[in-house]
Backbone:
């Protein structure tokens, strides 16, 4: 049987990958059915032919199809102009001088087409396009059989469930009828019986559904694992053939034909790339492809990785495509055809395939070794101090072999962020508790960072030189991806998720900042009781029992427990520019870490700090964001007598300062006469005269001369600094 040839690449066209015949009896591969000029993917409804030249059997997009100009010659057939130089009777007339001039001018100005003829995408790959497509077709048939078996088993189990439920109800109602005749029960008992049977039926059906889904997920994972091995075997044989035919041997090292054993990576992620801009082209392609239609995984991967120059870029393209797709919220028709674009993701519809299984499948089509790792994770609902004694926090993720090293990939977490305490509450519906955002942290995550959130069942897949135990994993501080994105670290390397307070109720958490974050990173915190949502004690906010300050290059949080009841400290951060902060616009903070604070014995009575503006204590923020250099007091805590003067030197044009004094159980209005601010040259002075001893809080506000923030024509001031003052007369 003679097969049709693709007009673009001159290779045989198979029914599973055929477009045509077109009007001029040409055929194309689906991957070749693109614009001759720009390579844009076309469809039967969007392609165009060159109407100026009937010998041109190429296809074009609407923007590049040749269009006849006012001086163009008519279309030609067999080398002769159609309708030009021939009379209606079929007699050719002699070309006039004007015709010859026009023809000569056109010929002289014609240029070759600006783009070379597009080659079949499969020519770039180790594995032949048609061979890979044929194997995918076999895999598709296996999947069809598996999903048909799923449907049959589901129907059979449901029918059996209905029969058993019916028999159970009939027995229960018959027994009730006998008791009713004897006067042992009444109508109220019947309602209670029906309610009990209904609840029992629903629970049994839910259990049956969960067991069936788990069984289907396991069977799907086994199928994908087998198919991935077959696809990689195809790549293995192709690589062997290529290496045997390469006599030079001077090219880059080839991808390993067999996966290496799990070992720590040879270099860190930062040694591979430090800025996602290196993937700008790859990411844009992935985003574009995610919004287009594909009918085979082979075509999808070849389109995604067409411009990939390394294994890392191939994996990156797959990762970005999956994280863009938002598979967990996609809607699927009940009569989904497996040969449609959405049919590629039918495992998502059935609930049998998830991010990690799909990532492994796509990696096999790109010739990349990938494994699915099972274990525990500190996921939604987890709090520091929890124990992994059940299956609540089971999770799965991937490791992919790139440049000779295994690298962690978590597509599910890379595609979504959890709503934290500043963005939601416990009353938020479950469906709204996830906000989908791309997170680069979960692509090629270093093992030293990955272990803070994920613990594999098999210790070798920690990829650490010295694996840790499950109990050690539980004791690690509970951190989020932003912690590492901002380059943070803990001052105490032995700090644990549960922090023990001393007998005075004091506990400290200190976080080091990298040099790049010192001038832009702002912290915030939230404190509540660990066993509930209560955030107040005796009418005081628990936040007033935390003193946040910046000491050197560390953000320090000193907690003073007001009782022996355990607390939950949630620390937030965000990087902002001084210009943005000075506008007074709200800043959205995101959680970076959490701690459980335990105070088993409290020998002193703690009092709350004065009620000042939220944020850090001390002059560090004033210097970083406002250019105010402290001349007299560099510490957050000041011990003073009756009179106090605080001075700053300005390096920015600030035109107004306001100081506000606060003291527990004292009306702020009575304290306003105690302090005043003044400016002399570039020196700002805050003078305070205390009326009585005690602990005071001082807030300082300012604004720039060019400040645009105003309400009702009145300029707004921005908080820049606060001090804790212990006054002694």
Residues:
């Amino acid at each position: 049987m003679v097969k049709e040839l693709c007009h673009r690449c001159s290779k045989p066209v198979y029914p599973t990958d055929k477009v045509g015949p077109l009007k001029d009896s040409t055929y194309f591969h689906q991957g070749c059915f693109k614009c001759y000029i720009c390579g844009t993917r076309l469809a039967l409804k969007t392609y165009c032919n060159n109407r100026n030249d009937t010998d041109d059997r190429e296809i074009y997009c609407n923007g590049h199809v040749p269009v006849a100009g006012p001086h163009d010659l008519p279309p030609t057939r067999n080398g002769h102009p159609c309708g030009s130089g021939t009379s209606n009777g079929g007699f050719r007339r002699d070309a006039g001088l004007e015709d010859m001039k026009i023809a000569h001018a056109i010929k002289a100005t014609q240029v070759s087409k600006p783009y070379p003829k597009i080659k079949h995408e499969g020519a770039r790959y180790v594995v032949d396009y048609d061979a890979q497509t044929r194997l995918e077709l076999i895999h598709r048939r296996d999947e069809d059989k598996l999903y048909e078996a799923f449907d049959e088993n589901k129907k059979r189990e449901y029918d059996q469930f209905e029969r058993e439920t019916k028999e159970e109800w009939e027995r229960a109602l018959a027994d009730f009828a006998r008791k009713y005749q004897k006067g042992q029960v009444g109508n109220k008992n019947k309602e209670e019986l029906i309610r009990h049977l209904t609840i029992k039926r629903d629970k049994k059906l839910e259990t049956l559904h969960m067991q069936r889904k788990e069984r289907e997920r396991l069977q799907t994972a086994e199928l994908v694992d087998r198919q991935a091995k077959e696809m990689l075997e195809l790549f293995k044989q192709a690589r062997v053939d290529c290496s045997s035919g390469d006599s030079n041997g001077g090219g880059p090292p080839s991808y390993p034909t067999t996966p290496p054993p799990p070992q720590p990576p040879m270099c860190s992620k930062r040694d591979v790339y430090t800025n996602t801009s290196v993937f700008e082209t790859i990411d844009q392609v992935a985003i574009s492809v995610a919004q287009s239609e594909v009918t085979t995984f082979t075509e999808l991967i070849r389109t995604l990785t067409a411009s990939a120059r390394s294994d890392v870029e191939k994996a990156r393209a797959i990762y970005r495509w999956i994280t863009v797709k938002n598979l967990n919220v996609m809607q699927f028709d009940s009569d989904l055809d497996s040969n449609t674009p959405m049919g590629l993701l039918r495992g998502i519809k059935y609930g049998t395939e998830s991010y990690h299984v799909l990532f492994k499948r796509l990696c096999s089509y790109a010739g990349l070794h990938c494994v699915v790792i099972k274990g525990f994770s500190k996921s939604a609902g987890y709090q520091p101090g929890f124990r992994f004694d059940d299956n609540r926090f089971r999770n799965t993720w991937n490791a992919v072999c790139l440049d000779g090293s295994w690298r962690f990939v978590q597509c599910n977490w890379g595609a979504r962020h959890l709503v934290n305490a500043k963005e939601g509450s416990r009353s938020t519906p479950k469906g709204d508790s996830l906000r989908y955002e791309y997170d680069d942290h979960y692509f090629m995550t270093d093992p030293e960072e990955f272990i803070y959130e994920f613990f594999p069942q098999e210790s070798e897949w920690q990829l650490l030189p010295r694996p840790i135990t499950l109990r050690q994993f539980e004791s690690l501080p509970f951190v989020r991806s932003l912690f590492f994105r901002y380059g943070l670290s803990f001052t105490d390397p032995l700090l644990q998720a549960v922090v023990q307070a001393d007998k005075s109720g004091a506990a400290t958490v200190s976080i080091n900042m990298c040099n790049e974050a010192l001038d832009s990173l702002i912290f915030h915190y939230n404190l509540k009781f660990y066993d509930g949502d209560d955030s107040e004690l005796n009418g005081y906010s628990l936040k007033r029992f935390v003193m946040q300050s910046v000491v050197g290059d560390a953000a320090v949080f000193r907690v003073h427990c007001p009782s022996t009841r355990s607390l939950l400290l949630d620390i937030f951060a965000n990087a902002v520019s001084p210009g943005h902060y000075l506008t007074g616009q709200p800043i959205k903070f995101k959680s970076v870490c959490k701690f459980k604070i335990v105070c088993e014995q409290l020998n002193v009575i703690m009092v709350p700090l004065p009620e000042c503006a939220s944020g850090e204590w001390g002059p560090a923020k004033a210097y970083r964001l406002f250019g105010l250099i402290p001349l007299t007091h560099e510490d957050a805590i000041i011990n003073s007598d009756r009179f106090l003067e605080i001075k700053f030197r300005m390096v920015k044009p600030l035109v107004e300062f306001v100081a506000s004094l606060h003291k527990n159980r004292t009306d702020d209005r009575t304290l306003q006469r105690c302090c005043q601010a003044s400016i002399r040259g570039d020196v700002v002075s805050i003078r305070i005269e205390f009326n009585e001893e005690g602990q005071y809080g001082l807030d300082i506000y300012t604004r720039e001369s060019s400040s645009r923030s105003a309400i009702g024509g009145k300029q707004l001031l921005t908080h820049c600094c606060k001090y804790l003052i212990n006054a002694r007369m």
About this structure: Residues 69-124, 417-436 have pLDDT under 50 and may be disordered. The chain has five domains: 1-66, 129-241, 269-420+434-476, 477-609, 614-728. The radius of gyration is 36 Å.
